[in-house]
Amino acid sequence: MLKWLFGKKDDTAEVGGTAEIIVINRRVKATPERAFAVFVDEFRRWWPRDLTWAQDNLDTIGIEAKIDGLAYERDKSGKTSTWGKVLSLKRPEHIVFAWQIKADRTPEPDERTASRVDVRFVAVDPETTDVVVVHRDFPRHGDGWQSYKSAMASKKGWPRLIDAYAKAVAGEG
Question: In this predicted structure, what is the pLDDT of residue 10?
Answer without folding.
Answer: 58
